[in-house]
Design brief:
Elements (H helix, E strand, L loop, with lengths): L1 E6 L4 H12 L2 E7 L2 H13 L3 E6 L5 H12 L7 E4 L21 H22 L8 E5 L11 H20 L6 E7 L5 H6 L11 H13 L7 E4 L2
Parallel strand pairs: 1-2, 1-4, 2-3, 4-5, 5-6, 6-7
Helix pairs in contact: 1-7, 3-4, 4-5
């Protein structure tokens, strides 16, 4: 059996990537903080004949990250795909788009950079032990209008993820693990629906189409160290 690990699998693109991988006969470790939502994703995968296991993962916690290898070892000694997708731009109550820099919440900057950049780097460090030349890592980046405000920490994490994507194949050259990133444009996610109700679905990419592109990149053995852009 083939095995994949996906962060941010409780909703949005991460959920759709997990479902797409399961449809291609991967056993998918679906990771995130919202266990209730992950239960629903697991159920959807199961109904469609796939296999998944929930992994409680907080990318802000090194201790949480360090528990993951032992959980994987209970099922397999090989990981075929690592999908680093989780995002943390908005909190549950508000978004930070368009606010003045000096009013940006301190904890939002810290959590965004620590979870999405530092957290994914550390998670990858602990999971490459399961990977080899037949394995693939795909990181989720993203694009924004350079003139926008209120997205500075997100800019930093996305650019950092892309630098990580270019450097990691060099670090892992002896293992031969492929590492790439997807940089989609505006995606019509649950948070967009919640915080920007005036946005029409036709103005953005659908999560399912982004997920299909993400998995396509993961399976393309011609790609390594590439940032693949996807526009509407």
């Amino acid at each position: 059996m083939k095995y994949a690990f996906a962060t941010g699998a409780s909703r949005g693109v991460g959920k759709e990537v997990a479902k797409e991988l399961a449809s291609k006969d991967y056993f998918v470790f679906i990771a995130g903080r919202d266990l209730g939502a992950l239960e629903q994703v697991k159920l959807e995968i199961s109904i469609n004949g796939g296999n998944a296991e929930i992994v409680a993962l907080d990318l802000l916690s090194l201790e949480s990250i360090k528990t993951v290898p032992n959980l994987i070892k209970e099922k397999t000694d090989h990981l075929d795909i690592l999908a680093n997708i989780a995002g943390m731009y908005h909190d549950d109550e508000k978004h930070f788009f368009g606010i003045p820099f000096e009013q940006y919440p301190d904890d939002a900057i810290i959590k965004n950079i620590n979870a999405i950049l530092v957290g994914h780097i550390l998670l990858t460090k602990y999971l490459v032990q399961f990977m080899d030349k037949d394995s693939s890592i795909v990181n989720m980046s993203g694009s924004f209008d350079e003139g926008e405000t209120g997205v500075i920490s997100d800019f930093i994490t996305k650019h950092g993820i892309e630098i990580f994507t270019k450097q990691l194949p060099i670090e892992l050259k002896d293992k031969g693990i492929r590492v790439n990133a997807l940089r989609p444009g505006f995606v019509y996610t649950e948070n967009v629906k919640k915080f920007f109700p005036d946005v029409e679905p036709t103005e953005a990419l659908e999560p399912m189409s982004v997920a299909k592109k993400f998995v396509e990149i993961a399976l393309d053995n011609r790609l390594n160290g590439q940032i693949i852009e996807m526009k509407k």
